[in-house]
Amino acid sequence: MKLLSVNLGRAKAVDYTDGAGGRTGIDKRPVTGPVRVYAPGPRGTGASGVEGDDVCDLRHHGGDHQAVYAYAREDLDVWAKELGRELPNGCFGENLTTYGIDVNDARIGERWRIGGDLVLEVASGRIPCRTFAGWLDRKGWVRRFTQAAVPGAYFRVIEPGEIRAGDAVEVIERPDHEVSVAFWFRAFTTERDLLPRTLAAGDALEPGARDVARKYLERTGP
């Protein structure tokens, strides 16, 4: 299990064919050398936890619970076949492109050590948006990505550190519950009846997601 690349995006103006536009850092490219990773601060003021990576929409992206985004090279390869085009590392807007580890099977609250110092904790999955669809320029992309339920994982930073391409990825703590990234994603998109079961992730569940699950449980009962 290893890190294939660390990917950074610089903010740029975009005007997609579907009408989405503005400024975005979704176009991430692999970089060489060490990159510092840290807790960026709360949503709304904190941006990316990866030094040199731009987050433009602080209302919906970035902050401590979305400090780092990872996607597996194996999943990119599957999408490349379906889309009929090359998908280089970073093209899904991921900061970390991994190899040899099932990112979507990671449990909420699972901890990874990357390199010598960095410790990350799985916080949630990625919910697709218009910017993502516009970037890939694929009609119906949000629906197709949602159906596949291989969203990749957002992480919070437990211990900051420096990482680089080739670093080993080690799972150092795996919670004993069923709430994987893929399970979380299905609960918050296509299978809302799963929402109460996400509460098994406890305090590792992002506060906003925990509130949604609790309100659903209050409305529907056990």
- Order of strands, main sheet, comes to 4-1-7-6-10-9-8-12
Coarse structural class: alpha+beta
**Beta-strand residue percentage:** 25-35%
Helix/strand order, N-terminal first: EEEEEEHEEEHHEEEHHH
The number of helical segments is 6
Rg estimate, integer Å: 17 Å
Q: Kindly state the mean pLDDT as a whole number?
A: 92
Account of the protein in words:
This protein is globular. The chain has helices at residues 73-83, 130-136, 141-148, 181-188, 195-198, 207-220, and strands at residues 2-9, 12-15, 21-24, 28-31, 35-37, 68-72, 96-99, 111-114, 118-125, 153-159, 161-163, 169-173. The model has no long low-confidence stretch (mean pLDDT 92). Strand 2 (12-15) and strand 3 (21-24) form a beta hairpin. By secondary structure, the protein is α+β, with helices and mostly antiparallel strands. An eight-stranded mixed beta sheet has the order 4-1-7-6-10-9-8-12. It is built from six helices and twelve strands.
What labels would you give this structure?
222 residues; 27% strand; alpha+beta; 12 strands; two-stranded antiparallel sheet
